[in-house]
Amino acid sequence: MKITVKVGILFAFIWMMVKISFLGMGKANEMLVPAVMTNIFLLLSSISVGLYLTKRKEIDEESSALKDVKNGMTSGLIYAILVSTFMYLYYSKIDTEFNRHQITESEMWFEKQIKDPKALKEIRSSNEAFETMTITELRKHYKKNIKANFSPLSTSTVGLLAMLLLGTLNSIFVTAVYRKIVFSKKALK
Q1: I want to staple 23 with a disulfide (CB 3.0 to 4.6 A). Which of 13, 28, 41, 121 is the partner?
Q2: pTM surpassing 0.90?
Q3: Tens of pLDDT, residues 51-108
Q4: What are the sequence ranges of the domains in the chain?
Q5: Is 61 helix (H, G, I), strand (E, B) or coil?
Q6: CA 76 to CA 96: how far, in whole Å?
């Protein structure tokens, strides 16, 4: 197994343990932002460490920047797939209360918005179809959409897409830094 794959698996496992520990502390809802920031940091770390270990092995060989980006993306891809799969299982089987909590919070926010005439006017003007809807129809439409947005499948899908995009950008950035600074001809002498 390639070192980049092993590193991706290791860092994904670390994030899973962090997420489970937040649940074990009873702070899964309050620790959402730290969990996301930890996820971003571990994705970057996975790419950085995987690419670093690969570059150290081939220090005497010439490699192209494209190959380095590919090696970085290998760690990021493995990380993203494992974490998004875990996110689906986590929100559908382990912490099902989280989605219900998010839906309830969102519905309370919407109820507050439709009671405010100014906010209701903005909601109606945001979509032509909303202009003719009654408040009951607006409420039904919003509830249907919010349940779809907070389903485990949509959460994990959006997470996967975001991690793939961020992993690609991080791979390019890390490759540029490694090639210009860490593994440049001057640095190696």
Answers
A1: 28
A2: no
A3: 999 988 876 667 788 999 999 999 999 999 999 999 999 999 998 888 888 888 888 9
A4: 3-95+152-188
A5: coil
A6: 27
